[in-house]
Structures are given as C-alpha cells and as structure tokens.
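The freezer alarm interrupted the setup, so I double-checked each line after restarting. Inputs confirmed:
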Amino acid sequence: MQPEKLIAEIIKEQSLIIGEKLAKSRAEDTGLVSFSSSRIEDVTLGAAEPTQIIQKLVDSYMEIFGKASVEVCVGVMRKHPIVEINNLVPETLKASL
Amino acid sequence: MRSKIALKSLVIGLFLAYSLWWLYILLAAGPEDSIRDYFSDSYGIVAGLGGFLGLIFAHKWDGWKSYVGKSLILFSLGLFFQFCGQLSYSIEYYIYGIENSYPSVGEVFFFSSIFFYIFGVWFVAKSAGTTISIKGVKKKLIAYVFPLLMIAFSYFMFINGTDFESYGLIANILTLAYPIGQAIYVSMAILTSYLAFNLVGGAMRRRVFFILFACIFQYAADSTFLYKTIQETWMPADISEYMFVVSYFLMSMAFIDFLAAYEFLQGRKK
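Predicted 3D structure, all chains:
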C-alpha cells in the first residue's frame, strides 16, 4: 500500500472530527507532509521513512484529543489487512492493531 | 487575540453585572418588587450572546463538517433558543399584557433547546471517541442502565403525583417530556465524562470536561426551577434563575475556550 494513501485516509478521518482546516494544518506542522492542492488526497510526503512520518502525524493529532486521537488513527489502520500496511505502521502502534 | 480578550471581557462583564444585580435583589428587594421581573425577563441576554458567539466560533472548526463544529453549533442553538424562549414570554407580557401563559410559544424554544443539548453532547462524545469506547460488559451496562436510572429519578422527582386531569394536553406532554428530555442529556453528559476520563487528553481534555460540566450545571438549574415550580415556591429572580445565569455563562466560556484551543492548535509549530 502506498504511504500517501494511508496518510490521506488518516487525515480525512481526523478532518471528520476536527475539521479539514485543522486536520491539514496539524499534518503540515509535522514538517513532513504537504498538499499539492486543496484536496487531502493530493498529499506529498517529505524525505523520511513512512513509519516516521506516520508516527509524527499521530503525535501531532495526539496533541488534540490525546489517546482518543491515536485511537482514530489506529482505527483507520485496522481497516486494512496487516500485511498491506505492516511496513508503514510505527512500532509503537503495532500492538494496538 | 485582542478580539478574543474583548469577547471574553464582554461575557464576563455581563455575568458580573447580572451577579451584582441578583445580589442586590437578594439583599434588598421584596418578593413583589418589579426589579425581580426586570431581572427575570432580561437575563436571557447572557444566553443570546453566548449562542451567537458559539455559532461564529463553530465555523473555525469547519462548522457542520466536523463533529466538534456540529457540537458547538448544536449547543449554541440550544443556548440561543433559551434566549428566544425568554424573549417570547417577555414579548407576551410587555406587548400583549399576557402574564405567565403556560404553555405558550416560548415553550417551543425551551423544549427545542433540549434536543439541541442532547445532540450537542452526542457530538462531543463522538469527538472524544467515547461512542466507540463502549466496550466490555461493565461499560455497556453503565451506558444502558445509567440513563434509565436518571429517567426514573426524574420521574419520581418531577412527574410522579402530577394531577394530569387539571391541565390540557400540551401542558401534560410537556410535564412528561421536560424532565425526561433533561434526564437524557444530563445522563449522556455524565456518561461521556466517565468514558472520556481515561481516553481524552491533549489540548481538548479540559475543554471537553468544561463543556460537559456546563451542560450538567444547566440540568441543575432546570431541575431547581422545576422543583420550585412544583413546590409553588418559585418567584422571579430566585436562586433557580441565577443558576440559569451561571449556566449560560459557563457554556459561553466553554465556547470561548474551544476557540482558544483551535487557535492554539492551529498556530502551534514544531
């Protein structure tokens, strides 16, 4: 699975809770995620390992609702077979899947 | 930033003005003094201001497109409808000379506000992830049994013993529906607080509990008003009315706090 797709799904899910503006802004705050258009799907990743980017993204959302925000991210990952996303999921979150 | 301080000052100033006014009434006014009516007919402005601000702040959270935005819109409408309910009764009294005509148009607003609070709490619960955290027998049992207990409590406190034959159909429906509706939103607020306790953290933790507390306080005000009305001890500007002032103030401050959280989270750079 492409990391961009999983990351876009996480941002979309967060935008349902906190709104698109803040969800995108928190993603951009990681310094590793940007958007080439106004659409969440057009996400561009910085030069880092996907696991590192996802970890930073989850940490950024965690600052909003804490563990509840992490659960939302994990919920998105759970929708995919583990074999498809195993190389994208940070070690800290693997136990939650 | 400046506008936020100005809005906060306006809300706090209005609350302090009504607090001082109420204190004056408590210490110096007699039971029939018209100053009580002026207080009683005007404090809804605190709710009107809060509701108006909440609707504006909800747009920051993408309005109806997000759970947080939805909860702010619904709570704001609930608060604004409290203001409209009071305004309706004031118009009836001051313009048409009708005094305390229960049930009246004002009840449409007061009663609707209960639904707004119920769905407002529901979206706070969804934002906080508590609707998906109801796992395990104990939590499920609490989630189902607690609201039923609250409804039973409301029934015995406010409905049991009512002489339904003395009133019309609408008044009877409202006698049943008010305590039950209020029991539903307060039990949801308490349940959400319980489920969110170990789940919600971050910048929103304090804000989530604050808005839920404001909701619980509104229930305390509603219940005190109902109790005093049933006991026939209610009078304008009594403690139940001041409790409404406090609850409207708390909800308004919760809205301002949500705006502050948004600005904090939006502006924070790593």
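Quick read of the result. Chain A has one domain: 3-94.
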